């Protein structure tokens, strides 16, 4: 931020590579449940068996494709960076979103680790701002890096005067 403006540019940092496995596990879990329900119903409901088993097969194939390819794409797209002036995050798949949170607008910094994130030794840093758009999230960070980042952001924001606007 020079002279009161933040320059939009691609953030420099990638997520931890383990995020691919974390995302794949999430998609796999989201795929297995409907496939199992459709398959069980297909076995139990004889008149609808062909259609239910076909639906289970289609959901399984689509879910497997998404599980394999989508996390790789996300890994290439998702970026983050923290400077003395702002937190930059780029996320998305088809619709990419760039978010910039100026340090003067940051209200809280949290670190979250769900059960799957813990299994992959990952964490999410959530930066809450005064924006109506909501918090800026940096998912898929190594849990130690996330803790260091939260501490760094806290120190930077403590030394940053609030935004008067």
TrEMBL record:
The keyword Transmembrane helix applies. Keywords: Membrane, Transmembrane, Transmembrane helix. This is PH domain-containing protein. PANTHER family: TRANSMEMBRANE PROTEIN-RELATED, UPF0699 TRANSMEMBRANE PROTEIN YDBS. Residues 75-152 form the YdbS-like PH domain. It comes from Streptomyces flavidovirens. InterPro entries: YdbS-like_PH. It comes from the Bacteria. The chain crosses the membrane at residues 27-45, 51-75.
């Amino acid at each position: 931020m020079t002279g009161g403006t933040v320059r939009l540019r691609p953030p420099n940092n990638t997520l931890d590579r383990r995020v691919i496995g974390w995302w794949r596990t999430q998609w796999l879990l989201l795929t297995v449940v409907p496939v199992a329900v459709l398959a069980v119903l297909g076995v139990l409901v004889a008149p609808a068996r062909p259609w239910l088993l076909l639906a289970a097969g289609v959901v399984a194939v689509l879910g497997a494709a998404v599980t394999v390819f989508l996390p790789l794409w996300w890994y290439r797209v998702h970026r983050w960076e923290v400077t003395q002036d702002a937190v930059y995050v780029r996320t998305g798949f088809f619709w990419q979103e760039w978010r910039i949170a100026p340090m003067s607008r940051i209200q809280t910094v949290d670190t979250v680790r769900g059960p799957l994130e813990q299994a992959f030794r990952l964490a999410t840093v959530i930066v809450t701002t005064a924006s109506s758009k909501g918090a800026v999230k940096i998912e898929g960070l190594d849990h130690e890096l996330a803790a260091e980042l939260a501490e760094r952001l806290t120190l930077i924001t403590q030394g940053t005067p609030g935004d008067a606007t």
